[in-house]
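[Meeting: bench + compute handoff]

Bench side (C.D.) handed over the final construct sequence. Compute side (W.E.) agreed to return the predicted structure before the next meeting so the bench team could plan truncations. Sequence as handed over:
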Amino acid sequence: MMSNIPEVKLGIVAVSRDCFPIGLSIARREAIVKVCKGGLYECPVTVENELDMLKAVEDVKAAGCNALVVFLGNFGPETPETLIAKNFDGPCMFVAAAEGDGDLINGRGDAYCGMLNCSYNLGMRHLKGYIPEYPVGTAKDLGQMIKEFIPIARAVIGVQNLKIITFGPRPQDFFACNAPIKGLYEMGIEIEENSELDLLVSYRAHANDARIPAVCEDMAKEMGEGKYFPDLLARMAQFELTLLDWAEAHKGARKYVAFADKCWPAFPEQFGFEPCFVNSRLAARGIPVSCEVDIYGALSEYIGACVTMDAVTILDINNSVPAQMWEDQIKGKYDYSLTDTFMGFHCGNTPSCKMCADRAVKYQLIQHRLLEPAGSEPDFTRGTLEGDIAPGAITFFRLQCDSEGKLRSYIAEGEVLPVATTSFGGIGVFAIPEMGRFYHHVLIEKRFPHHGAVAFSHCGKALFEVFKFLGVGDIGYNQPKALPYPTENPFA
């Protein structure tokens, strides 16, 4: 159950220029509501002036709406219609009616024209409004636009009501996950930064919590017999309850939370396990827990969860696919070159529902080498959820604040291939068209860190619109060969 994700209640307000027939806007609004089949609250106030605007905003707020469609049924009143976005506390989409449902004398609305002035006035007032690619259409067209607006609105509402809770500081030599938090405040996000020691104190206070056996039972049921360490369950359950209780006690005025936690090198020895499996379970519930105090990674994951209403993960853009593996298992079977492929990996934080059937709770090989005696059986380095990630469609993306405080992002759609990785960790063979060029001209040149969020569907269209609405001016993507990057050498 995605319990940490907003539920969108969408309303529609029609507007009308007083020199155009108000009945045209009303009739066209009613047609849209009919197409949406009850999924849209219909505001009875049609806005012609500023007082109408105040009445309409009051009405949709009273109805519990947290997102709004402002509908230009005709040319529309420029000032009142844009002030709706100022007075309504939530994302607003602006769309306009196409002609064709009446004569072109008394039945012409000119909303095609009105949309231009609507956009101009939004800009004059420095107000945000979501305007689709082609915002003019019939009731059926607009019904589809409204459907596509819902995940965008859900993500925007989530971000505007989000607190990111961190337990740090970031591990040494992981400055790649460091980024100014200025960008968070610009997007309206709150952040609470804590010490790793605060987390340890809270964890110890949860010893012998009466809820631990029920969580252990749920963990065992999720994994299946032989897929977990029975002696580890109570420790991990204690930690899961610690995070959930912390979120509830510390979200304050905010409705939603995400975590960015330090997970090595001190964590496993002091807590007695690796936190990856617990992190994966919370991510499956819409509460991302990013690794290595990666604040913007947690934010990216949360946005992906809002857009898709599904589990997400965070992975390293980790290692190249061996040429022999590509020759044997990919070439000729899938339309990808060697440089289109790479392996996405992390220690074991990907939700079990997104992994192949042979996934299991194991131990962190790298940490075992580093922290436990050579040749010993793994002890406190156990707790990772490992196995190959299930094949299927994915979107790899990230929102980041650079060293100058500028928000940047990237989005690339691709897939996880049904190719055995023969490696360790939570890992998969990923394929993204033109990944090699994207790797250089976006990821390297624009200084993105190695962590990327992964959604398990193609949702680039919605993510692109979310990033635009949040004010991200630089949105990179994997450009096709026919569209060179600005820095791409034309003679190469």
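W.E. noted at the follow-up: The chain has a mean pLDDT of 95. C.D. will use this when planning the next construct.
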